[in-house]
Write a structure and sequence with these properties.
Helices cover 36% and strands 21% of the residues. The protein is α/β, with parallel strands linked by helices. β4, α11 and β5 form a beta-alpha-beta unit. It is globular.
Length: 612
């Protein structure tokens, strides 16, 4: 290993300490800081190590609590009528890991051990239970579905029977199969790793004529070795990573008597799927092989970070251990790092007193706004014209009066009522417009520039720092007031002559109307009210020791009946394994004053939007 690679590892030890906390729950082998560094050091070069550290950061580690949460989430998607009297089983043998996961979930879903025992069954007893209990459904649980071949194998063993069956030793009888076809089958997975597995589900439904559906707590269809994933920063990096992982993975499969094509299809994980999912008790075979497969590379034993259960048995049987001198070197690297070095991140509103989580904002009161601008919110309504036709006085009509005789002195009663109805509707729309217009001005009057700050008072930098806030556009807007649809009024003013059926040449008089002003800037999607939006205030920043970053954002109060608002936020950075969650608060306080800049902005809006 060259000095650059060694320095890179030492530089990342604080980050690796944080990752150790997350990954130490892996049950197959003890994962500590030394093991993680040992694994990384096997990649030898700076360029490879840089990528591997990123991949370790991106590992989706599903511990016991998260597994139960995801399975429960999948279970909750099943319609209630299927859960009235279900038959529940893990998708495997009673000793299988899915059975343990299933039982942990059931303890949360049901009140007593007795209730669980009445519902749960072993896969080899499903046939008898179907006939004796007539369940509302069969619900299976498993940790993941990747290609779907395991699900296909399960139903083949259950229905057709199979020599050397792994999951179901006793297939269904003919009568039990008939009962199965009448029973809805629902399979809950913690995670679905490929979209193609849906095709297997559909083929099983047709092949066996069964009512089969799957649900998952989450999906991850990403190949984390492709540029399209968030892991790789460029196509070149993705290609480089795939090449060196294939180079290391290929000799690890020398223990398999497989064809070249089969081996090639495994070098980046089963199906070359490039997955980074790890369960606390084992790994799916779609995980990138260098993380779980043992063997030899460059004449040395390859020590995987997350050895699969059978791989760890081989490691123990062959008495393979981490090299003593390498561990000594790793310990010296760790000891060279001052203890308790980590970022200390603070986030909030920047005020004269520093960063705070709560600010108060003074805005003009409703009464003040209406006193100042009331006359613009009360556009005059149109009155009815009397039912008397206007005489033709213009030159053109004077020339034509001998050709087109003047009609009677009034329009018909029916036509006049239609005209009055149109005037009423027109006036109603003026009222509605005035309300929208007034609300728009009230909202604009609450515009306020706030400064958000993220600061690091720790003793090392916080890398890839991202801050995301969430808001409902029916409550607040952040930096999007110009994208709020402006009130518009484009209805024609009804004119009595329009309702004179005898006067075919009556002129239609249009009202002076106002439309939303045209925008000549970049076109953006309009804001939809009462919709939740995520807003990334800061993204992938490096916040150095005793450094900070600021961002000015315009905040607008949308809910005019509310004065106090909460803004949830999430903070992520590389040196912290868990997301930091919090909440900021803004209180709007009414006052009887207004700045000249705000007054000018409101007059500008009024000039564009008021009805003449």
């Amino acid at each position: 290993m060259d000095s650059r690679a060694k320095d890179l590892i030492i530089q990342n030890i604080p980050l690796l300490k944080v990752l150790t906390e997350k990954l130490s729950a892996y049950q197959v082998v003890k994962i500590d800081l030394q093991r993680i560094i040992y694994f990384i050091s096997q990649f030898e070069t700076y360029e490879r190590i840089e990528v591997i550290i990123k991949l370790i950061q991106s590992v989706d580690f599903i511990d016991s609590n998260r597994m139960t949460f995801l399975l429960k989430k999948a279970f909750e998607k099943i319609p209630e009528n299927f859960k009235s009297k279900p038959l529940i089983s893990s998708l495997g043998s009673i000793q299988d890991s899915s059975a343990v996961v299933c039982y942990q979930l059931l303890k949360q879903l049901f009140d007593s051990e007795e209730a669980i025992l009445n519902l749960i069954t072993d896969v080899n007893s499903i046939g008898k239970s179907l006939e004796s209990e007539s369940p509302s459904s069969i619900i299976f649980f498993d940790d993941n579905i990747t290609s779907g071949t395991q699900l296909a194998d399960f139903f083949e063993e259950l229905i057709d029977g199979k020599a050397q069956a792994e999951m179901v030793k006793i297939p269904l009888t003919a009568s039990e199969f008939e009962a199965l076809k009448k029973t809805p089958i629902r399979v809950c997975y913690a995670i679905q790793l490929t979209e193609e597995s849906n095709n297997i589900v559909n083929s099983l439904k047709v092949k066996y004529n069964i009512d089969l559906e799957i649900y998952s707590g989450k999906v991850d269809f990403n190949n984390h070795l492709d540029f399209q994933s968030n892991t790789m920063k460029s196509e070149e990096e993705a290609k480089f990573t795939r090449e060196f992982i294939r180079e290391i993975s290929e000799p690890l499969y020398e223990d398999k008597n497989w064809s070249t094509d089969t081996v090639y299809n495994r070098l980046l994980g089963y199906g070359n799927l490039g997955k980074l999912t790890v369960f606390y008790y084992n790994v799916p075979k779609s995980l990138i092989p260098v993380f779980w497969k043992s063997g030899n590379y460059n004449g040395k034993p390859w020590i995987p970070l997350f050895p699969e259960t059978q791989q760890q048995k081989k490691i123990i049987e062959n008495n393979i251990k981490l090299e003593y001198y390498q561990l000594e070197a790793i310990n010296s690297w760790i000891n060279s790092i001052p203890q308790n070095r980590k970022p200390n991140i603070k986030f909030g509103f920047l005020t004269n007193e520093g960063i705070t989580q709560h600010i108060s904002v003074k805005i003009p009161s409703k009464n003040f706004i209406e006193k100042q601008f009331l006359k613009y919110f009360t556009s005059k309504k149109k009155e009815y014209e009397p039912n008397v036709k206007q005489s033709r006085r213009d030159n053109i009509q004077s020339m034509l009066q001998n050709i087109y005789p003047t009609s009677s002195d009034s329009v018909s009663t029916i036509d006049y009522q239609k005209y009055r109805n149109a005037i009423d509707e027109y006036n109603k729309q003026i009222e509605d417009y005035n309300i929208l217009f007034k609300d728009y001005i009230h909202r604009q009057a609450s515009n306020y520039d706030v400064v958000f700050q993220i600061a690091n008072s720790g003793n090392i930098a916080a890398t890839n720092s991202t801050v995301k806030v969430n808001y409902n556009s029916g409550e607040l807007l952040l930096n999007d007031f110009d994208d709020l649809p402006k009130p518009t009024f484009d209805k024609s003013k009804p004119v009595l002559s329009d309702y004179d059926k005898e006067n075919r040449y009556g002129r239609v008089v249009m009202s002076t109307t106002k439309f939303a002003p045209l925008s000549f800037g970049p076109k953006r999607e309009p804001i939809i009210e009462n919709t939740y939006y995520d807003y990334k205030l800061f993204e992938n920043l490096r916040i150095g020791h005793n450094n900070n970053q600021n961002k000015k954002v315009e905040v607008t109060r949308m809910n005019l009946e509310k004065y106090e608002f909460e803004i949830p936020y999430e903070i992520n950075f590389d040196e912290e394994a868990e997301t930091i969650n919090g909440e900021l608060k803004i209180t709007f306080e009414e006052s009887e004053e207004m700045t000249q800049d705000l007054r000018d902005a409101i007059y500008k809006s009024i000039d564009k939007l008021k009805l003449k």
